[in-house]
Protein 1
Amino acid sequence: MPRIKHIEIGVLMMIKIYDDGSSYAWTPSMGEKGIVIRMSKSTLTSLGWCAQQMWLQHNYPKEQGLVKHLVLGDDVHNGLEMFYDNLEKADIDELQRLAKSGADISKNLRKYIPNEEEIVNNRRDENKEFPFYDEDYYRNMEWLMAYETARFAIDKTPLPLANEVRLELKKEIEVPGYGSIPVQFVGIIDRVFEAEDGGLLLFELKTGKWSHYKLASMRKEMAYYKFLIENADPAYLKEKGIDRTVTHWGWRYSAADHWTIEEIKSVSERGMMKTMRDLIKMYLDNHFKPTTNDMACGYCDYIELCPKYAIPMGDA
Ligand code: SF4
């Protein structure tokens, strides 16, 4: 985990600069000091919600209290990661043989699900005191096991090639009218499997609700991960066993019992690159567009700082 330097400006503003010399709260004056824009899947996809909110969150960070869905989401993510680690001890060939013969192997797989004690022991410090939502956790894991059972019957290699792959890289991005802009990219890919054609299948686990309206943004997220793999250090990819072409991507919404696996879509990759350039332009212009969706503002913690709702001088 990179160390972070905090710079306090005025009463409220708190800017993080990471050890690699990048910041989500980048301004053109930081650029003059050699600091570069930092970009993640979350900052990139924030444009689909509100770019102004993303900028405010990084400039005026607020303590985010622990809420059930965040802790549960972490527990399910960790649970599945540990499940795959535990599964390495299983007789995979035998499980595959049973699954292909039509047997329900979900009860065999359940043995490898980490229990409450293992999950709580592996929580981040700030989550440790939170209650363990065993009903929600096990329900999510049950749905995941149904999916795993289906995969064992059809996948050549059911175990992931890599789990929780953290990628960090610096790359210059050509932005028309602005030149070549250095950007620090970061991201963690939940899972990388072998695709049916021998290429890589990038896979994301979500614990929220699925809606068909999320399709375009999910494809953009996956296109971002593909971009990270394609620009990562080849030696690191080789070490992780994922030095191959990305041919597929997919996602699993455990609580919605929904999954998608599909071939990569170049139109989504082009859309992701356009969004990336639009976000870089916002940083360079130091202007982050507020959303036009007033409904979104109703849920926003930053309304009091938002220029969209600023009281014009003289009206106060
Ligand atoms: S109040 Fe609305 S426009 Fe302003 S930051 Fe929040 S979501 Fe964006």
Protein 2
Amino acid sequence: MHETIEPAILYTGTPVVLISTLNEDGAANLAPMSSAWQLGWSCLLGLDASSKTLQNLRNTRECVLNFASIDMVEAVDRLALLTGSRRVPLHKTFLGYRSEPDKFAAAGLTPQPSILVKPPRVKECKLQMEARVVSIAPFAKGDSRMAIPVRAVEARILRVHADPCLRVEDHPNRIDPDKWRPLMMSFRRFYGLSDGLYPSRLAEGAEELYAPGARGGLRGVASKAIVRAASARYDVREPPELAPGPETAGEDV
Ligand SMILES: Cc1cc2nc3c(=O)[nH]c(=O)nc-3n(C[C@H](O)[C@H](O)[C@H](O)COP(=O)(O)O)c2cc1C
């Protein structure tokens, strides 16, 4: 039988990203985060509204998402409980955070120039994505269980850099998940992934089917027509915002 529980944290396991941004003086800030996911070449980031990173994203609208692998766990952990904010926000003081102006040095990581944005990449990260902020929106508005205000940042990926050791042989644009070992955060602790478990039906078709715009020839024309039809059919106006429901869960049904 399941039991109703109320964990303070619902981090069920997400990859650790080191997000680099530029401070107002042009110095780089670097922060570990794991509320980050991608859909296509767009990305959603969940960020503490008091973070230096969010302030920098508002000011400059640019960042690099540097994906940490398991061999980087110690460097990532050295960045925990640090903020680039000169004045540590009260809730972070309470949690034991301190201000650190040079997070690259604190972590022992190496800045590497980006191509399309000003914040540097993290050289040690085998997968890096340069990105531009599209929007910053409230998140969990009116949710009394959210301890501190947060924002949902939508970013558009502009360029992906991958260490060649991650690529599928003979496929320059594909990452081999057997070679990529992301560092994961689950309920505040660090984990790696196990080996592949089971053949994935979703992975049977060519990965390029998910990028119809990039295909040429007759197949490209056909897939663009399918995407246009899908947009006309499904890209409809959303219903107005729903009123928040009751905050305590009811009985199991
Ligand atoms: C592994 C890890 C994952 C984290 N995930 C997030 C996250 O998803 N969102 C967030 O706002 N803070 C997250 N934090 C906390 C931030 O790193 C922390 O708020 C930090 O002070 C931000 O740095 P900044 O103030 O210099 O931007 C995470 C910390 C660690 C160590």
